[in-house]
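Request: How about a record?
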Amino acid sequence: MTDAEGFLTATRTFYDSVAEDYAEYFRDPLADRPLERGLLGVYAELVGSAGPVADLGCGPGAVTAHLASLGLDVFGLDLSAAMLEIARRENPRLRFEQGSMLDLALADGSLAGVVSWYSSIHTPVAELPALFAEFHRVLAPGGHLLLAFQVGEEPLRLERPWGRPVTLDFLRRHPERMAELLTAAGFTLGSRTVREHDGGLSSPVPQAFLFARKGPAPDCGL
């Protein structure tokens, strides 16, 4: 088994095991997050009706549904069959597919947008260039990427969450390094937002949100 196969298997197993607990705990993850709602609104305005958007690593589909409510032609993709079962149950009018972000069954340039909302956090740093290259491949010229992740050095290791016999590392990154990797993959960075931690359990470290575009920056806007 390769390193990539190993982390994909571990991630799939973890989320299959905790799917129902996770979906209940994060039933409305944007309810008390006005900044995040605002950023998603900006993203929806940038993409508009340019074409389909993929919510990669969609989990139980809450962010996918929010993007759809903003008028985007969006579908979700996730490794976990159990997560997708919940997403389809909760959002029967939306499309959800199973797959890996590292090997998307999508044609080159077929998307107007890619959202990776805390879904790159299990990808080892050595695999990030390949991940961002895949994002770049499936985006049409001028397509928009929104990348969200936690900021920091030390990973968070969750062991036996909700009493389930699984463990997984949640990796934290530095926005500057992620911006460098996106640039190396052919993206133009549009904006960088960091929300400082609030001291609570739901946000113990800063959160970063990067907007990037495939190709050169336009004369105005992101």
User: Anything to note?
Assistant: The mean pLDDT is 93.
